[in-house]
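Protocol step 4 of 6: structure prediction from sequence.
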Amino acid sequence: MKKTLLLIAFISSLFISCAQKQPNIVVLFVDDLGWADLGYRNPLFETPNIDQLAKDGMDFQRAYIASPSCSPSRASMLTGKEPVRFQMVRHIIENENKLGYMDGENNMWVKDPVQMPSINHLPLEEITYAERLKEFGYYNKFIGKWHSGIEAYHPIHQGFDAQYGTGNHGHPKSYYPPFFVHGNPLKEIKEDYLTDVLSDEAERFISEYEKDEPFMLNLWYYNVHGPHIGRKDLIEKYKAKGMEAKYANYGAMVEAMDESVGRVRAALEEKGIADNTVILFTSDQGGYFTNFPLRGKKNGGYTLNEGGARVPFMVYYPGVTKPGTHCETPIQTLDVYSTLLEIASGKDQKDQQVNGVSLMPLLKGDDISKRDLYFLRSYEDQYAAIIDGDWKLIKYHSGNVQLYNVKEDIGEVSNLVFVHPKRTKELKARLEAWEKEAVPEF
């Protein structure tokens, strides 16, 4: 009887040990995928794998980018900081052109009304979630688009143990080889579609991973950023839906990326680690095309409107997230930093330099403390915003102010500045106080 009890205790300890094992983490980050560009929100697109991921985990309905643009969105997610705090308010430029030029370490934007400088790399002194996860014993792999600095600032210098398909480019010149004009990190590829090439590497990494420590895999797609070149076998399907050629190519790009999500999940299943792997899926800013019913998109002067700043965001954490749940709490992608640290450590991380918070309470079905969300980008007249629950105020350099209740008016049709003058005054004052504290002098 005593031996039986000892055996039961031993088996129980093994079970507890397995249950408490640090989960693997997969971060899937898409470029320019609009909030409305998913099959369950827009039947023109076919995204069964992403739709299933949303059903399996928690789908955040109001996730935002603190500075919706390629480089700042990446830097803020990696660091948990509002990117204006280290003066990254625009995307990094590779070469000077008619829109932007270099001024020392900073790039300048010709049409920026205030000529605010923007740093052209993610500073090495900034702490990334990859660097912190290494402290908790994680092996970190990076695949795909970086756009956070040249070689000296690449992922392998920012906490990642290995990288693949990573160059200095904001986007490829083509999604078929040769992918890049210069500095091509995938010059050995002769015929395959870029998204499939990155997916092949993700599958290989998962299937061959044999280290004792858990892994964190970042698969950051170049899709669906322009040039809009769809995978050839998918384009006709979208033309048949009545889409013109450019939009049909975009639909094909979205579906190719969705297939990749399915391939990653299948690889995790085949490896036998799907039940101990957290998957986080999101996008770096709103879509290039229409984002109906949202107003605005990635460019055109209205990027801080919902269509440019609100993005898809879902988390599947086996045993923690309840399938099919929606979260209406406004969050920002800079919350990813603290969330990943809590997942890795099992404890709430209180890193003093971060502006985000852990989303673990929400993932468990609880609440987080009420807070304001702040936005800033320096390209055009529209430049800053604040979200307080359902309320959103947007500022322009020219003095224009807009106030919306985005719960009741998701399309931001009715400017309520004169309907709610007191609320307008309060939000404007809080936004200006944040600007004074967060925006560096230049």
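Step 5 (inspection) to follow. The CA atoms of residues 280 and 315 lie 5 Å apart.
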